[in-house]
Design goal:
The chain has about 500 residues and is α+β, with helices and mostly antiparallel strands. Helices cover about 30% and strands about 25% of the residues. A hairpin with a 2-residue loop joins strand 7 and strand 8. The protein starts with 5 loop residues before the first strand and ends with a helix.
């Protein structure tokens, strides 16, 4: 297999970043594989996952393992930066974590501290340059940053920083935070970080690293998850770890300690862990779609187990929209836990009537002769002896454009099902997300432009029903008393935002 292209910084013998970028662009060749754009676009993608390690003799490998557990949060690029109190090295590339970070690559990343990032993005050299962590040599020293989320006021800040002389290596909004730190007039680094974070608005769970310290922070509303864990070391100081999801702790044998609080900045040094609240008094609006789809069911997000929320979604869905049927079938993998809850509540048997091919990536070679619904057939295959002659309830987590759902309904019906009833474990998605989720524009969301009956007709199901918004909130609420952002279901956003695509034509016309 061809080795992935890498960007290498701070490693002995590495070329300058500018030289690497020029060489990559000269050597760039068109991808021979093709993407099924329609199927790929008919789902939501979280932008990334982050991890940080402090106080481990092989921090790079620990970060690698944590990123491996977070691979579901982004499959197109990954990076790891390490520090050993003298140097700060950074290696990132396009592809899966296991493909990028071979033993030889990990050997180039020494140090007891590390941060890592895995990302969903577009392909190409620009995406490699925007891969994270981002390493910047600033007036405050070397800083590396990895970011999960999206800033909504970056335009004005970036313009101001450029006027002040800032030079941006990337088009990523993550670098804006580093530049704000570099241009801060605060006396200490931790004050500069707190000052910078208070100037940005939107969603961010961030891990940062200097030569001798690791930082972790969440935005004041707590949009994206970030947890802190500890690896006990009987012979010395404990290893402190941070990750977007607690499933990463299990692979490291780390014990979950707590979530980083909204508006909190945590610093880890050789002297231990310190914390400060850089922002208070802002209502919590954590992303409810983390519980619906993004997070793994074995993770604890916003203090609540994802499996528990999804089970309750399925149970509530059964209470709200029961239909007589013979079998409950999940759309794997995201529909499995909700389908188990639906089956338990309704008393209708559960079984895997659709089998997913887990070895299909985002790209594949199309057959010369076009096959109808090829993309879905490549990923899913019906179990005919379970479906034939049966009334089927299909459980899925969401409908975005509706094209994939229609293909799955057709597949189940062609396998001999007499009825196909589609049940969705969240409300209709009617608005795009501006807080770190790759969402189609409003005009491309089927529920934003069609009634439930029109959606049913398009998807060709015998019936369709969504979980109510109140039912979803109740399923995710629990004893934790979490408050969630539900803007994708309501169109009501917790922050101010500007849709660049909407204002661009007017701006061009004014020239």
């Amino acid at each position: 297999m061809k080795s992935p292209r890498l960007l290498v910084e701070g490693v002995p013998g590495a070329e300058s970043l500018e030289t690497q970028i020029l060489r990559l662009r000269r050597c760039a060749a068109p991808l021979r594989m093709t993407r099924n754009v329609e199927d790929e676009a008919d789902t939501l993608h979280d932008e990334c996952g982050v991890v940080a390690i402090h106080g481990h003799p092989d921090a790079a490998r620990q970060a690698y393992l944590a990123l491996y557990a977070l691979q579901h949060r982004g499959q197109e690029s990954a990076g790891i930066a390490t520090a050993d109190y003298k140097n700060l090295s950074n290696i990132k590339g396009m592809g899966l974590v296991a493909d990028i970070f071979t033993d030889d690559v990990l050997a180039k990343l020494p140090g007891e501290m590390a941060i890592g990032h895995t990302r969903y993005s577009t392909t190409g050299d620009s995406a490699l340059l925007n891969a994270q962590p981002i390493r910047v040599d600033s007036t405050k020293g070397l800083i590396a940053i990895a970011h999960n989320g999206n800033l909504v006021n970056l335009g004005n800040i970036r313009t101001r920083l450029e006027r002040e002389g800032a030079f941006f290596q990337t088009t990523s909004d993550s670098e804006i935070i580093v530049q704000l730190i570099a241009h801060s007039h605060a006396g200490t680094l931790v004050d500069a970080i707190a000052d910078s974070l208070s100037q940005v608005d939107g969603a961010f769970s961030i891990v940062m690293m200097t030569r001798d310290r690791v930082f972790a922070a969440r935005d004041p509303r707590g949009f994206r998850p970030l947890s802190m864990g500890r690896i006990a070391n009987p012979n010395g100081p404990d290893t402190i770890v941070f990750a977007s999801e607690t499933c990463a702790f299990d692979l490291l044998r780390a014990k979950w300690e707590r979530d980083v609080k909204p508006g909190e900045l945590v610093m880890v040094t050789q002297d231990g862990v310190t914390s400060r609240q850089y922002s208070t008094g802002v209502p919590q609006t954590s992303c409810i779609f983390e519980h619906v789809y993004f997070a793994r069911p074995d993770s604890r997000i916003f203090g609540r187990w994802v499996q528990q929320s999804r089970d309750q979604m399925g149970r509530q869905l059964a209470r709200e929209s029961h239909v007589d049927a013979d079998l409950v079938v999940p759309v794997p993998d995201s529909g499995v836990t909700a389908a188990l809850g639906y089956s338990a509540e309704s008393g209708i048997p559960f079984n895997f009537g659709l089998i997913r091919n887990h070895y299909v990536g985002r790209t594949f070679i199309e057959p010369e002769q076009k096959v109808r619904d090829f993309g879905v057939k490549l990923k899913l295959n019906p179990v005919r002896n379970l479906l034939e002659g049966k009334r089927i309830i299909l459980i899925d987590d969401s409908i975005i454009r509706g094209t994939t759902s229609r293909k799955i309904v057709r597949m189940v019906r062609s396998a001999g099902a007499t009825e196909v009833h589609l049940r969705i474990s969240c409300p209709p998605t009617i608005s795009p997300c501006f807080y770190g989720v790759d969402t189609p524009r409003k005009q491309e969301l089927i529920a934003a432009n069609n009634s439930v009956e029109e959606i049913r007709q398009f998807i060709e199901a015998d019936s369709i029903a969504y979980l109510s918004l109140e039912g979803l909130k109740e399923a995710c609420h629990g004893e934790e008393n979490n408050q969630y952002c539900t803007a994708c279901y309501t169109g009501i956003y917790p922050t101010h935002w500007v849709d660049v695509e909407d204002i661009l034509p007017a701006a061009l016309a004014a020239r």
